[in-house]
Write a structure and sequence with these properties.
The longest helix has 17 residues, at 26-42. This protein is mainly alpha-helical. The chain contains 5 helices and no strands. The protein has helices at 3-17, 26-42, 47-56, 72-86, 94-103. The relative contact order is 0.14. It has a single domain (3-108), classed as Cyclin A, domain 1 (Orthogonal Bundle), CATH 1.10.472. The mean pLDDT is 87.
Length: 112
Amino acid sequence: MNLDRLQDLCLDYLEGVMAADPAHDLTHVERVVQNTLLLTEAENGNFAVSVPAAWLHDCVSVAKDSPLRKQASKLAADEAVRFLESIRYPGSLLPQIHHAIEAHSFSANIHK
């Protein structure tokens, strides 16, 4: 799947699930994606892993005062994989994407 098609599918999906959180709105996600593109290029990374992880890293929103707050990145990673499976994204990449999303949160306390 090319990155333009992935972007379109992610945008359609996110418009339906993004919470009204001004700190984590679609503009935030688009900035994360732009930075991810630059970093992936600079580090010779795998765009097929980093880009969907960037698009979907905040696909689940958990309120700051929720007891589930520390699990937010895992919940987002689980939901991202569910979505990517639904669009038939390559299954071999899903564990790496899940890890990237889950580990992006400081509060998840995942070091690698």
